[in-house]
Design a protein that fits this description.
single chain, 580 residues, elongated, six-stranded mixed beta sheet, alpha/beta
């Protein structure tokens, strides 16, 4: 995938350039320290040559030795300060990359999870984001090496231009070898990281389904599936090592040959009296500095790794969120929570799951959304709070298109409770108050009582302060926490997306009666898969063939055999899912 590798490198370069601009003050200070170190290193052979000539002539030996010691001391101090500042700058780049990556992953929402699975994101967040931490030091190291080489060649030319000409003869093969490595190694580098991400994704999937794997006795087969990318990982690693080995061998041959050539020419010029013994020593030192650019190969390898890692981060950053904030947001006016969907179309692939759907939800009413499996009930309610945007049509909240509202304000106005709510936060109190972190304990307990969750929460080891990791919860108890979270908000629209499916009938009735008191005056949409749930709603929106077939009370629809068939096809809940 040469084209893909080029795009990856280009994206990585852009992101790294942005990092340099963002941390330009630290990078500038790092560059100053590097320049001081390079200047001291370039001055060292001169000081050494003076010391040798002073020892030869027995003139000003003390002063020459003192200057040599000062030069070496400055080089050592600058090198130490460079290491400290480089590590500090690199850690800030890693933090910056991880914050940007996390922000974009959250902005991409559920649809981004299909493109970037959990294991892949984890790999990018850890390995790919940490690699560029070495970039500042590597960059200034490469610049210092090139500056040192240029300075050493200049010094050779000042001693004798034949010495510079001898070194120049070995430069073209060196450039060709480094260019060859960058071209050939990018693709296997990228494939190696992609294989690592694939293994991590499969491992996380298996971890989530560990009970199913154990129950089916497929642990060995699952291990083979998880490690399936290993052969490709090995091939990518071997390709990288092969390219690196070929270039290393060539550089290992070119560098000493070039140095021997320069020293040999210096020896000939000494024999003819064109250079002094001190200049011969300086020439040997400068030749060693000049050919040290060959050691840049390891730096190039590390820089390429940084570039590939940054490129993988940039792939996520370049992904366009399915839901984008409005360019010119308008405020949400006060209103009773009137909800209207006009000609709403949502496509999955080539199929219009929702097809020019119209629905008018009266303010303060509870509307049950009913339909056969796969008719798009969850898609419909997802458009209300912009968890996804329809391909066509408009969703309005109190007369304002939801696409014109600021996303934070919309998400505050529309509260969701899902079938399997995520446990977010450190404690049970935190997960209920997740959308309102400033809620008091009394408010949290009132919401928990509304969701019939207060009793089992107080039975936990530390009650509401029980860490989530030490709170064994059934499926039904999880759903009641999600309902409590929704009850705590002051949203004008509440969406329950199959949020009571894991409750037995008696508990569902208890929870629903409590929520009816708490949610009085709020507009509610309930994805209903039980006749009893639909019966408790004010109206039922019967979703069929992508449209609302009818909006009417459950009692008026029940005589219709087609309506009853919707519930007859509903899968029976398992005992484990009942969660009582």
């Amino acid at each position: 995938m040469p084209g893909g590798s080029a795009v990856l490198r280009a994206g990585g370069r852009r992101l790294l350039r942005e990092a340099v601009r963002r941390f330009r003050v630290r990078m500038a200070l790092l560059s100053v320290l590097t320049a001081i170190r390079v200047a001291a290193m370039l001055s060292t052979p001169v000081m050494l040559a003076r010391a040798v000539d002073a020892a030869h002539t027995q003139e000003d030996l003390g002063a020459a030795t003192a200057w040599l010691a000062v030069t070496l001391g400055v080089a050592l101090l600058a090198d130490a300060a460079e290491d400290v500042l480089g590590a500090y700058c690199g850690s800030h780049i890693t933090v910056w990359l991880r914050h940007r990556l996390l922000g974009r992953v959250l902005a991409l929402g559920p649809h981004g999870q299909r493109r970037f699975p959990t294991g892949d994101v984890l790999s990018r967040l850890t390995e790919s984001a940490s690699g560029p931490s070495a970039f500042p030091v590597l960059l200034v190291t490469a610049a210092a090496a090139l500056a040192t080489t240029a300075g050493a060649v200049t010094a050779l030319a000042m001693i004798d231009w034949w010495l510079a000409a001898a070194f120049a003869a070995g430069v073209p093969p060196l450039i060709v070898a480094l260019r060859l490595f960058v071209t050939q190694a990018t693709d296997p580098f990228a494939r190696y990281q992609a294989c690592q991400a694939a293994i991590a994704t499969r491992l996380l999937d298996a971890r989530q389904g560990i009970r199913t794997i154990q129950a089916s006795g497929t642990a060995a087969a699952e291990a083979r599936r998880i490690l399936g990318p290993l052969p490709e990982l090995r091939r990518a690693g071997e390709e990288t090592w092969a390219v690196q080995g070929r270039v290393s061998r060539r550089l290992a041959l070119l560098a000493p040959l070039t140095q021997v050539l320069v020293v040999g020419v210096a020896g000939l010029r000494l024999a003819t009296g064109d250079v002094t013994p001190g200049q011969l020593v300086a020439s040997a030192s400068y030749a060693a500095m000049a050919v040290a650019s060959a050691s840049l190969f390891d730096t190039f390898v590390a820089l390429l790794n940084c570039q590939v890692g940054a490129g993988r981060i940039n792939e996520v950053l370049a992904a366009v969120p399915a839901v984008r904030p409005p360019d010119l947001p308008v405020p949400l006016p006060d209103g009773p929570g009137r909800l209207r969907l006009r000609r709403v179309t949502v496509r999955i692939g080539d199929r219009a799951v929702l097809d020019r759907l119209d629905l008018d939800v009266p303010p303060g009413a509870t509307v049950a959304v009913v339909g056969a499996s796969g008719t798009g009930k969850s898609l419909l309610v997802s458009t209300v709070g912009r968890l996804l945007d329809p391909d066509e049509g408009v969703v309005e909240l109190d007369g304002v298109p939801v696409t014109d509202l600021p996303l934070p304000r919309l998400r505050h106005a529309v509260a969701y409770a899902f079938e399997r709510p995520a446990l977010l936060g450190a404690t049970v109190h935190d997960t209920i108050a997740y959308a309102r972190p400033g809620a008091t304990r009394a408010e949290v307990r009132r919401a928990a009582r509304a969701a019939a969750a207060d009793d089992f929460i107080r039975a936990l080891p530390d009650g509401y302060d029980t860490p989530l990791a030490r709170a064994p919860l059934s499926g039904g108890e999880l759903q009641r926490l999600g309902l409590a979270r929704a009850a705590l908000t002051d949203a004008r629209i509440v969406v329950l997306d199959d949020a009571t499916s894991s409750l037995d009938t008696a508990t569902e009735l208890k929870v629903t009666q409590a929520l009816q008191r708490v949610l009085a005056g709020r507009t509610s949409l309930v994805v209903a898969r039980r006749p009893a749930t639909a019966a408790r709603a004010d109206l039922v929106a019967w979703l069929d063939a992508g449209r609302i077939r009818v909006l009417a009370p459950h009692a008026d629809l029940w005589p219709d055999p087609g309506y009853r068939a919707v519930f007859a096809t509903r899968p029976t809940a398992t005992p484990e899912a009942a969660g009582t």
